[in-house]
Design goal:
Oligomer: single chain
Pfam family, one: NYN
Number of strands: 11
Order of helices and strands: EHEEHEHEHEEHEHEHEHEHHHH
Organism: Yinghuangia aomiensis
Radius of gyration: 29 Å
InterPro entries: NYN (IPR021139)
CATH topology of the largest domain: Rossmann fold
Strand order of the largest sheet: 7-6-5-3-8-9-10
Helix content: 25-40%
CATH architecture of the largest domain: 3-Layer(aba) Sandwich
Distance between the termini: 74 Å
Protein name: NYN domain-containing protein
CATH class of the largest domain: Alpha Beta
């Protein structure tokens, strides 16, 4: 019989009790008692406490590949507050009668100094930010151990009955086993893979329940991507001053200033700790360069792709603003 089902009997007695029911305790055979009815009762709704454990590196990379076509975090932006709210709503569907303990948000930061975005996330209600380190290759270190520590501690102290783990890392298998040994049910959620699989099979096998968050769930969380505009871009440059894409050719100075403006905006949105990773140059990573170009073309309503001199001006304006913030850079001249 399945664990989510139980049997209940409407008759408390057994066959022996029926025989002893005759007056005087006679053993004279009488009519046989009716069969004891058995009723299958469906499991009650989840009414315990649950917590959501989010491996941000996995989530951002998987959503980036699925929606923006790249796992490079600098190439797109995700509305973290909207994503967290969506995860809480999704958990509410699974645990309609349950209580959320909190969302644990595991991310990496250089020297564990939070970025502007991470500080904003930490201020959200019912959210606890846990920071691992970020090495020179922008790889997270120590995040898995933080997830394991929290998951095992909450399970051992009976603080939760259900754990939603949004990750794909095989290193979490032992943590899942440990939580289950204390009676916690582990729900493994994953992002729909852009191709292949993005979760380790041993982790999938170990979880009690699995769930996939599809493109429709992920797409509204992405604010900016490196995808080029849908409109086709002319292959050749028009004559000086001619209209293209609904506007005239901008000047070198206009594009240079726009590069600085975009750098200023990114500093505010992504944080100084994130932007300093681009220094000292001399070139921008390809995905960041594309994001800068798309951002500028969207603001100008004009394609800079046939204009090498204007693209150079855009990069120089961008580097000049970063130089003001962090010190000498080696951008294009």
């Amino acid at each position: 019989m399945h664990g989510d089902e139980r049997r209940t009997a409407d008759h408390a007695g057994g066959p022996d009790e029926a025989g002893r029911g005759a007056p005087g305790g006679s053993d004279t055979p009488g009519p046989q008692p009716a069969a004891v009815p058995v009723r299958l009762v469906s499991a009650p709704p989840h009414a315990g406490t649950h917590a959501v454990f989010v491996d941000v590196g996995y989530v951002y990379a998987a959503i980036g590949l699925l929606v923006a076509g790249t796992a490079e975090r600098r190439a797109f932006r995700i509305d973290a507050e909207f994503l967290i709210s969506s995860l809480i709503d999704e958990a509410r569907k699974v645990f309609p009668e349950g209580r959320l303990l909190r969302v644990y948000w595991y991310d990496g930061a250089r020297n564990r100094v939070p970025t502007f975005e991470q500080k904003q996330v930490a201020e959200l209600p019912d959210v606890k930010v846990r920071l691992g380190n970020l090495n020179a290759h922008n790889q997270q270190k120590g995040v898995d151990s933080l997830i394991r520590s929290d998951l095992e501690s909450l399970a051992r102290n009976r603080a939760i009955e259900d754990a939603v783990v949004v990750s794909g890392d095989e290193d979490l298998v032992l943590a899942v086993e440990s939580a289950q040994s204390y009676g916690v049910r582990v729900h493994l959620w994953g992002i729909e893979p852009a191709y292949g699989m993005n979760q380790a099979e041993p982790l999938v096998w170990e979880a009690d329940v699995t769930r996939t968050l599809h493109h429709d769930f992920c797409a509204p969380c992405v604010l900016r991507s490196v995808q080029p505009p849908a409109v086709a871009v002319a292959a050749a440059a028009p004559a000086s001053g001619a209209a293209q894409g609904g506007g005239t050719v901008p000047t070198f100075d206009q594009v240079w200033r726009l590069g600085g403006k975009i750098a200023e905006r990114w500093l505010g949105a992504r944080g100084r700790e994130d932007m300093i990773g681009l220094m000292p140059g001399p070139r921008l990573p390809e995905n960041v360069d594309k994001a800068l170009l798309v951002d500028a073309e969207g603001e100008l309503q004009f394609s800079l792709r046939p204009h090498e001199d204007l693209r150079r001006a855009l990069r120089n304006g961008f580097w000049d603003r970063l130089t003001q913030e962090f010190g000498p850079a080696h951008g294009e001249s």
